[in-house]
What we know:
- By secondary structure, the protein is of the alpha+beta class.
- Strand 18 (624-630), helix 24 and strand 19 (652-658) form a beta-alpha-beta unit.
- The termini are far apart.
Amino acid sequence: xxxxxxxxxxxxxxxxxxxxxxxxxxxxxxxxxxxxxxxxxxxxxxxxxxxxxxxxxxxxxxxxxxxxxxxxxxxxxxxxxxxxxxxxxxxxxxxxxxxxxxxxxxxxxxxxxxxxxxxxxxxxxxxxxxxxxxxxxxxxxxxxxxxxxxxxxxxxxxxxxxxxxxxxxxxxxxxxxxxxxxxxxxxxxxxxxxxxxxxxxxxxxxxxxxxxxxxxxxxxxxxxxxxxxxxxxxxxxxxxxxxxxxxxxxxxxxxxxxxxxxxxxxxxxxxxxxxxxxxxxxxxxxxxxxxxxxxxxxxxxxxxxxxxxxxxxxxxxxxxxxxxxxxxxxxxxxxxxxxxxxxxxxxxxxxxxxxxxxxxxxxxxxxxxxxxxxxxxxxxxxxxxxxxxxxxxxxxxxxxxxxxxxxxxxxxxxxxxxxxxxxxxxxxxxxxxxxxxxxxxxxxxxxxxxxxxxxxxxxxxxxxxxxxxxxxxxxxxxxxxxxxxxxxxxxxxxxxxxxxxxxxxxxxxxxxxxxxxxxxxxxxxxxxxxxxxxxxxxxxxxxxxxxxxxxxxxxxxxxxxxxxxxxxxxxxxxxxxxxxxxxxxxxxxxxxxxxxxxxxxxxxxxxxxxxxxxxxxxxxxxxxxxxxxxxxxxxxxxxxxxxxxxxxxxxxxxxxxxxxxxxxxxxxxxxxxxxxxxxxxxxxxxxxxxxxxxxxxxxxxxxxxxxxxxxxxxxxxxx
Length: 719
């Protein structure tokens, strides 16, 4: 009897109705994929089938490999359609689902990754887990054609064992949650900062930078912590580790030397051979790290890299309405990196034709182009004849060796880059994942605002403000609650704790860059649902999802930092920032509760929680609030504000009160928009009609001053 759920090859499955680019990639697989939802689980219960759950994302290289090998294969599809209900999930749309089943995979196998493969009961209890599986068994790795029949037989013949294993797996995941926040002993104090620094120092690669051998991932939150450590202690080793890492990354192949922006990570220890996908969150956090390094060192090369990142984001990842897209794929033309690599012959031909032989030779030297290729294939270990552009010598070093002018060499290399960029536009581009995610946009908004303030570049701030307006206006449900994903005119999926916390961070940075109270007000308004809907009143901290999100079997709390800072660390950080900006002691009390709750995990592994260490650095202080009262049109006001913007001050909060703001409207409540949000600023006025700074520590202020140098001395004396 034919299977009632079989369908002709080439016909769209249920994923064709979805918005996720990842799900749409699988919409014409012969597998009868369905999206996550009660309909799928009801069908599994009615038909007494297990669930085959596959989780990935649109720019995942090995997800593409598994699709080509297995999910496009009729034999594999026949097995899946006959014996399973097959569900596809985009981990970036549903990080809550991914978090539960990635924990299951790690507990059951000791490792994890994507594609994530889970087989579970119709009640969402996982009894088998893994990552990538080939079509056929090979090299000790089970293949889908062998694996699927065994799992189906296990379901039919050993149901009790399967259900017991699934129940045990969910119980283990819940136990992980119980052992999380609030379960450890110890206090979070400066010793945790010292241990975090020592752990990173011990893992640091002094030759290439970074904190591992291979593969090497950018971990910007580690770098942000190290900069704060150096600022706090005067120990320059933190800055030196950050600078070595960021300089090596910019020179390496992990940076796109033609179109700018950073790839996801390097497969080798030299930052040479990347996995070529580009993620929005990497661009945001790395731009922030380069900006802060520039503030610490004054080396304009670091500011240039941040600007290059923003050029890439503006050109390739920005929606017409202002939001930021999620990622670009690694693959094109059926293979990874095809868009980015060059043979020497192609490289020489393009540049020689446009600029001449000498220019081609100069660029060949600068970008280390070799006739047999400059990297080995990851699988075979053989040279491919292709080259990943990367830099050995700087333009100044090349100029010195050639006896030429450094500025001239730099100009010629920029001309070569532009020619290569133009030629590359004719190639097949990697897939653009054009969904707009609230949390990742929040990180980019924060980075743009921080860099715009530091560089004095209004265009960066405007780009961040456009994105913030887009998120606040378009990613809302009918009741005004924040949503997680927007694509193709559709906003959907309830926002999680990370969405709220990251967007709040971005709005705080926008206030710092513009002194427009509406951003501070919007941040404060978003904090209320974060604390009301996600806060754990018993063990403190925030759950990833609120209590109404009932389609996940476990409400988890994100504690350690992965590619992005954890939701709890970011929440702690924004509680501290907003508490100090507004003078709201209840927020600072809530931050202190979260500090106590995080003590166990952070003390146990400080370097795995570096965003928490960034928050701890702020919590420990000494932290200052500076209220500047002044006429916005007076040069003296902006000299004072510019002096504050120029300095690296991670523990300094600045508020601006325009002169002439009424304390109270006639016959009514306070009309000062800043004082409505930060009441402690109401009494801060100008002295002698001049811009005045009030430098405060713990809301106790020093003598107000109209002198910029004295203001900076007061800040230095508070440290």
